[in-house]
Amino acid sequence: MVQINNVLVLALCGAILVACVGMLVYILPSLCFFMPFRWEEERYTDGVKWKFLEHKGPVFAPPYDPLPSNVKFYYDGKHMKLSSTAEEVATFFAKMLDHEYTTKEVFRKNFYKDWRKEMTSEEKSKITDLNKCDFSEMSEYFKAQSEARKAMTKEDKQKIKEENERILQEYGFCIMDNHKERIANFRIEPPGLFRGRGDHPKMGMLKRRIRSEDIIVNCSKDSKHPKPPPGTKWKEVRHDNKVTWLVSWTENIQGSIKYIMLNPSSRIKGEKDWQKYETARRLKKCVERIRAQYRDDWKSKEMRIRQRAVALYFIDKLALRAGNEKEEGETADTVGCCSLRVEHLTLHQEMGGQEYVVEFDFLGKDSIRYYNKVPVEKRVFKNLQLFMEDKEPEDDLFDRLNTSILNKHLQELMDGLTAKVFRTYNASITLQQQLNEITNSEDNVPAKILSYNRANRAVAILCNHQRAPPKTFEKSMQNLQTKIDAKKEQLADAKRELKMSKYLAVESKKKAVQRIEEQLMKLEVQATDREENKQIALGTSKLNYLDPRISIAWCKKFGIQIEKIYNKTQREKFAWAIDMAGKDFQF
DNA sequence: ACAACCACTTAGTACCGGTGCA
DNA sequence: TGCACCGGTACTAAGTGGTTGT
Questions:
Q1: How many Cα atoms within 13 Å fall on the side-chain side of residue A367?
Q2: Given A387, A417, A447, which residue is the final one in a domain?
Q3: A2: which strand partners?
Q4: Length A81 CA → B6 C1' (Å)
Q5: Is the pLDDT confidence value at A152 over 90?
Q6: What is the extent of the structural domain holding A572?
Q7: Is A371 one of the catalytic residues?
Q8: Is there contact between A339 and strand B, defined as CB under 7 Å from any strand atom?
């Protein structure tokens, strides 16, 4: 692929017109004949996303491969041959046997119920108790299979790799408006047992196999339409250029729609990403006005206005998510700002020498716990007392508010403003401020990168991006410490030698000491970084919340290679920004 | 007004394969 | 040469927010 730098004039959809910008663009030589420059293409209005779209359709999950006859299932201690359909579902369970959740009541109940639906009537009458089912031979068989896969010869592994590459080349790309673009997820999700996050009421349910007849294909009329597998038909072929997806189907657990879409490196995703940060930068210009407004609204005589103002304060100060309502019993019980309940807050008139402290404790997205003690203004505190008065723990804190009301209000304050823009804005501005504050131009490269990671970490903490500490964390910390100790010893040795050699090769020994000192420093920095990162995930904020131009400008300003901050995939995703941002870019 | 639906972004985790070390 | 480790990636669930229909 050839990379070409140039100026792209983009008029963004609708009424919003954004200024001209430089943008790095990938051009496919083979397609250059038709459309030599991406930036010569017109921008679409009225929600049109493309003019031409051609692709090969999805890759289906491989069909079920029945167990060999020596791998047996036992019911109540006795061998029982299962029908192919029932056997397949049983293997899903067998593959998860080592996981804790196969012991959970809800998981077992849901699985058993759905499994029975797949049984023949004979099987249904025989199998009446999940506890009497013995999947252990199946489980052992799959473990052996995975061992065998690991032990394959280089040649066999190479063959598989080549086959995957072939599939990727055939199905992994599409043509959208004269550009070959990478598809993000061209494989249909295979059948299996649903495992939601946290305490999910539907865990263990059977996620059914997707067939051609479930698939809606979206492509342009004048494209070569993808062919369904022989003997099958698509549910529908449509030509909707107001959407970006290539393929969709309805999933059976929540009844929601799943999509095949393009990779983040694609034009369509990149432009949207850029737009998102431009909206956040527009918020920067008016955020003080909005803050003054909501502070004023804390005093409103209308309860709904006060609630709106306090919620917005939380969203702004704590980077909480909006908090849409959710259907009870359909998903795990998690909340965001607007859906907070009385039970999620504890008010402390005084705590640890601070006045008006609010203690938050709730499960947010992905059932990640949000726990925080925050001193708030007296007015906020008094309002919260008011909102909580005469309510049960399970009552909504903001009973006069929801995300729709809040977003309508925000829309009036700034064009394109919604609750999530505050998260983007606060994340990016925090990175910018932290970098400005803590980067020391005297530092060497590893120390500067430590500063960067610390700035990134401040954002991840703000956004509550947590991770389970890696299973091998303690061990890998220990290993690193061992390395550090060894390096220290080596340094001591080198210093001793330098002292001894008054005349011979002093210069080279000085250099050796210096080199070892540098290595030691690098290791120590690495240890600090890793320790501070134990329970914090940096990836999510880096990928979704931090305007990449901030990081790129920082790299340029301090002479750090961009490769140290962004890996290959990330550089592809942020190609637009890499070209756009000079060393003086400020968010 | 609000519920249902749809499209799209954001999210953590499991897994894989390359790398570097004993 | 085998193995641990780590970064990268695939996967897919879980959010947000707009639109549509009643």
A1: 10
A2: A417
A3: A27
A4: 43
A5: no
A6: 427-580
A7: no
A8: no
